[in-house]
Amino acid sequence: MEKQVVGVPEPTLRRLPLYYHYLKAVFEKGREHISCTHIGRDLDLDPVQIRKDLSFTGIRGLPKVGYQIEALLGAIEEFFGYNRVDEAFLVGVGNLGRALLGYEGFSRYGFKIVAAFDQNPDLVGSEIHQISVLPIEKFADLCRRMQIKIGVITVPEQQAQKVADIMVESGIKGIWNFAPVALKVPEEVVVENEIIASGLAVLTKKIQTSLRFNSKKQEVAK
After folding, report:
1. Mind giving me the DSSP string for the chain?
2. Among 15-19, 155-159, 175-179, 203-207, whose mean pLDDT is lowest?
3. Buried-most residue among 34, 46, 128, 141 (CB within 10 A)?
4. For the whole model, what pTM was predicted?
5. pLDDT higher for 209 or 179?
């Protein structure tokens, strides 16, 4: 059974930003209308599934015309809140943390990291990509004062739970976790795990399967 997030299947939530990015590029090239068939062909996805996914935004396409792209972009922006800015705090200014601080693409999705925190005295007081690095001791007070609801964890796995505890106690309601560890948080706190090793494992397995398949095809051809 597909996991549901507030009545919307999680796979749908993961596909909608893909459509959004694609539609932005198409719209910037001057196209005004598009069909699910066209989207499906370019993204190698089932048009029927695309239509179901887009229906969750509340917009409907017209027969023989499809979707008005600008309206569809607006519907997806409203659905996700891209037209609002969600501010976040990041904890852990290592290589991964620095990369996220420097990623300008977040602005397209209404997401902005406004401060970073670390316990390394050599980093505290510096600025990385024009974002201040502050001592972790200041996290709770600033989080409450600025009413920050999203926290990003990019610390080593041994420190992740401690950081998560600080975030929860500070009023954080959603955690984007890049540490390879299962966090224990209250039920009302949402955690989205980005386990990079899992993606690498899937990629490696697909490559092995592809190589075996092509090898068998070559043997049959002989």
Report:
1. ---EETTEEHHHHHHHHHHHHHHHHHHHTT--EE-HHHHHHHHT--HHHHHHHHHTTT--PBTTTBEEHHHHHHHHHHHHTTTS-EEEEEE--SHHHHHHHT-GGGGGGTEEEEEEEES-TTTTT-EETTEEEEEGGGHHHHHHHHT--EEEE-S-HHHHHHHHHHHHHTT--EEEE-SSS-----TTSEEEE--HHHHHHHHHHHHHHHHHHHHHHHHHH-
2. 203-207
3. 34
4. 0.68
5. 179
Q: Both 97 and 121 in a single domain?
A: yes
Pairing of strands 131-135, 111-118: parallel
Does residue 169 share a domain with residue 97? yes
The residue type of 56 is F
Same domain, 32 and 58: yes
Number of domains in the chain: 2
Domain hosting residue 22, numbered range: 4-80
d(CA 155, CA 158): 8
pLDDT band at 4; cut points 50, 70, 90: very low
Judge if 64 and 155 occupy the same domain.
no
**Confidence at residue 189, expressed as pLDDT on a 0 to 100 scale:** 93
Is residue 222 a part of any domain in this protein?
Answer: no
